[in-house]
């Protein structure tokens, strides 16, 4: 029997090749929807809309089974090849250099959602073709929709991207992407400009410097969790978004207090995700570890007036 989950994500499910200054992994389980759903699954039930080829093994699928992630809308194409991304990081771990992108099965993906998925209240459009993000957005009668994107789409499909941005409530992107998207070097002005295009809020991820939330009439910013060892930044953005949307879907409300907590949960999930390759760290994360870092955030950002 199919079920409506409180949260749904469309995005890439990928096989990555990653090189960091600390090591490399040839076949690393990745993709925006993968990192997002694993992080979000600590807060609520989540469903994935994506496509894979038959090179995506049963062992790879275990990441969804273990966390009871709903895969009713994860299509498998016989004879198809899974999305592939190769990326490299230098000592500035905030910026990934894309070495190779192969859309493979995503090139002709035409998602047809089940009727139950169409009733999902919280929807995340993870990083993937903007046309595909919009096709999913149009099928779902969601109460709150957020999206991500990256320079790859900002540079190749700017018009399609603007059309998708116009139909979401929140845009969650990193600071360099916000500047590039708005064509504006000052981040505050870039944020103000993007907010005139449709979304009610913008969440800017700033890597090791934290994150900021902009709405038309408020501003909130936090530092990143002070980690001493960052091993693989891949998926930091998606696990941030997973913690953020997972918490909002669990709380089932969108007010300033809940949004600020969601930013902290996003930062906590990203801080764990970067400690090891792929989703390895989140796969053995415990809820009490999430609570511990959440409380530490309160301590190190609190001061008296
Ligand atoms: P991030 O959270 O931004 O580090 O996202 C990392 C994930 O994004 C990787 O696991 C990649 O598989 C995926 N990715 C990289 N480039 C693209 C792209 N152009 N479209 C969709 N997903 C991508």
What does this molecule look like?
The structure is a single chain. The protein has 305 residues and is an alpha/beta fold. The protein has a single domain (32-81, 111-301), classed as Ribokinase (UDP-N-acetylmuramoyl-L-alanine:D-glutamate ligase). The chain contains 11 helices and 13 strands. The protein has helices spanning 32-40, 58-66, 130-139, 151-156, 158-165, 175-182, 187-195, 236-251, 256-273, 280-283, 287-301, and strands at residues 7-10, 14-20, 23-30, 46-53, 74-77, 83-89, 96-102, 122-125, 144-147, 170-174, 201-205, 211-215, 219-222. The protein has a 9-stranded mixed beta sheet with strand order 5-4-1-8-9-10-11-12-13, with helices on both faces. A 4-stranded mixed beta sheet has the order 3-2-6-7. Helix 3 links the parallel strand 8 (122-125) and strand 9 (144-147). The relative contact order is 0.15. Bound molecules: adenosine monophosphate. Residues 12, 14, 16, 30-32, 35, 85, 101, 127-128, 150, 152, 234-238 line the site of adenosine monophosphate (AMP).
